[in-house]
Amino acid sequence: MAMTLYELVGSDAARPFSPHCWKARLALKHKGLDFQTVTAGFTEIPGLEGGFSKIVPILKDGETLVADSFAIAEYLEATYPDRPSLFGGEGGRALSRFVESWSQRTIHPQIARLVVLDIHAGLGERDQSYFRESREKAFGTTLEAFVADREARVEPLLKSIEPLRAILARQAFLGGESPLFADYIVFGAFQWARVTSPLPILPAGDEVAAWFERCLALHDGEGGKVPAAA
Asked: Is residue 152 part of a domain?
């Protein structure tokens, strides 16, 4: 029986947008495993699998349930060791933890300031109410005010990813000549922006943009199958 991956969507069930769900999806593809997807909106997540988790992605493999994208990657690595490695060893696992920490503290907050209103626009009515209330409470301001100067925030984001740009000028992927889970971690952040917002972020000719295009083409173009927001 194929595994099931629960993913976050808005009003269009064909457009999963969570960066964490994209990490898990590409991890499954990397391992060459068969899986099906089940989509849910924000307010539907607590009802999935009997309330197993408040977050997605959730992976169901037989009777086993795993939540959190990194935990899913570790589960896949341990359970299917004969398939291509997501970490390339214990050192790669530890370095992937660093990449995740850096991405979620450096890239994610900046992308949120660019796309959060677009995310809201793409949600169903019930999820819009939840999203606005929860995010405005967290941000301490309205969604509109939070993104009011977003065009001016693109350049600081690009400067902050200079360490990423420098390494990708030397090699095709963070994993070297081929991708590892660390690549999927950072890819998820930029795919989040690509799927939810038409705001251009990565300029043509940028090493990170070229890497992102390579990632979109991985695994028979899995990432590129969802069109960019228009």
From this structure: yes
